[in-house]
Amino acid sequence: MIKAFYPLLTNTTYLNTAYVGLMSNQLAEFRRSHEEFYLKNGGDQYKMKAYDDLDSMHQHFASFFGLTSDRCFGTSNFSAGIRTALSFLPKKMKVLLIEEDYPSLTDAFKEEGFDSAKIAMQSQIEDAIKEKLKSEKFEVLALSIVQYTSGLLIDQEYLFRLKKEYPSLIIIGDGTQFLGAHPFHFDKSPFDLVAGSGYKWLLGGFGNGIVMLSKDFVAMTSQKVESIRERFFNGHFNILGMASLDFAIRELFQNDFQSLVKEKAALSEEAKNQLIADEFLPQWVGERTFHSSIFNISGGQELFTFLQKNNIRCVQRGSGVRVSFHFYNTEKDLKKLLRTLRSFRELNSHLPFN
Question: Which of 254, 286, 309 represents a domain boundary (last residue)?
Fold first, then answer.
């Protein structure tokens, strides 16, 4: 049973993968042995071996994410990866962003000096994007594939249609709350650039991330992929972090990742339906065709404290409390959450839910 791989699950109801993914026993043992080689035998050979292993690591990344290895790059985290990737774009490009999106994504464009405009986050964000693109000319659309506060999952079929209507539009996705939580094949997606950290849904621990570039993006830079790779690996890289992501991805392969995300999707759909039925979620969540496994429940500090006292791990985001389900969660976890929320509402009938 996959849950047995994660010791923290034996003593808590962990609904906080959107904040930090758990470490498996297997990854912990790998990291210990990896560092032990550096300590006892490696020294200079530890670094030499790390560079020798880069090609095979990127082959694993490419196979998992659905692209060729020359267009995917391991990086220390999302923030570093997206900034390196954006350095290849002309600063004259105008960028469309979402106001309440992940700050490290929007800040990256601001720091690089891009001309940008923002639209407010809303339940039918795709319609808002369409209207904005009709009224102004943009070269780049950048957004989180899953919105980190609300869990809204961007409609990729809509993005495909957008690509047909605006074939020169560059679409950039923050995949930190998406990669490892949903099936994904980059070269069959509407994105030109996707970057994400590996410590959340990919369960790779800290110090790693991934950047993926489309063939069109590479062609637009007028640079060879070798030159792009040199930019990403200018100086040393986080050897343990990169090896950990490689291990975690191979572990997902071995445990039949496609089956795991199907199980997660089924549990998430049940969670969504139950939370909506009990009026713990806003109406718009049920009106969208798809949603992620991240849910934001109104309740503020009082609810957050109550859930913590009941040994449910979660985090405050926006005006609510965010819970998230991964494939190591079970129906038992969902039932405990629902019981606890109902108990909180009975004890605090004066406080508003959604």
Answer: 254
